[in-house]
Amino acid sequence: MNDQLYLLTHGIPAVIAGIMLALTLVGVTGSIWGIKRGLDGGERILRITAAILSLVGIGIAGYVVVTVEIMNQIPQCVGGGGGCAAVEHSSYSRIGGIHVSIFGLIGYSMLLISSFLKGDRARIGAFFLALFGFGFSLYLTYLEFWEILAVCQWCVSSAITMTMLFVVNTSRLIVFFGTDDEGDAFVPAEDPDPAAV
Predict the structure, then answer these.
(1) Which label site among 5, 16, 143, 169 has the fewest CB atoms less than 10 Å from its CB?
(2) 0.90 cut: is pTM over it?
(3) CATH of the domain at 16
(4) What is the pLDDT averaged over residues 158-182?
(5) Residue 100 CB neighbours (<10 A)
(6) Distance between CA atoms of 95 and 136, rounded to whole angstroms?
(7) 178 neighbors 67 (Cβ within 8 angstroms)
(8) To 5 degrees, how large is the angle CA 167–CA 40–CA 32?
(9) 191 falls within a domain
């Protein structure tokens, strides 16, 4: 456990920890605000929050994809340290020959698309995408702290972003499932008046 505490306290510089805290505040604040607003625009707030977090995730995963797959380099850890290189050189950085950041880029892109969609199908889809991403992020974070014994700041930032997406999309599903979307409510066609024909 001492190794994990050391990684946590020394593997993440203050600047990155501040960014991670800001991402957490965006997710938590957006969720609380959306829930409190309820049917008076609350889901829109949650969808905007999810879109912002998804764009951050696309930026993180996109940087790693470009750096590793296109430039054939190791992602740079802010403030130095060799955590990013150690994680990148581990056997866990690829699944079936595909770099994990590519899966992240696909997942964040799908979550971004789901943040623009309305209705219960979009809510359910976004929830399960975020749930899968959250579980996958937990697994990768476990590997960093307990198997690789190195912290990649990009990976941990992505894990926090995905965790906040899970919180936001869970709030969206629980609070707004079964509610009509503004302007999307089903209005049945009126039966023609037989006397008017």
Answers:
(1) 5
(2) no
(3) 1.20.1440.130
(4) 92
(5) 20
(6) 12
(7) no
(8) 30
(9) no
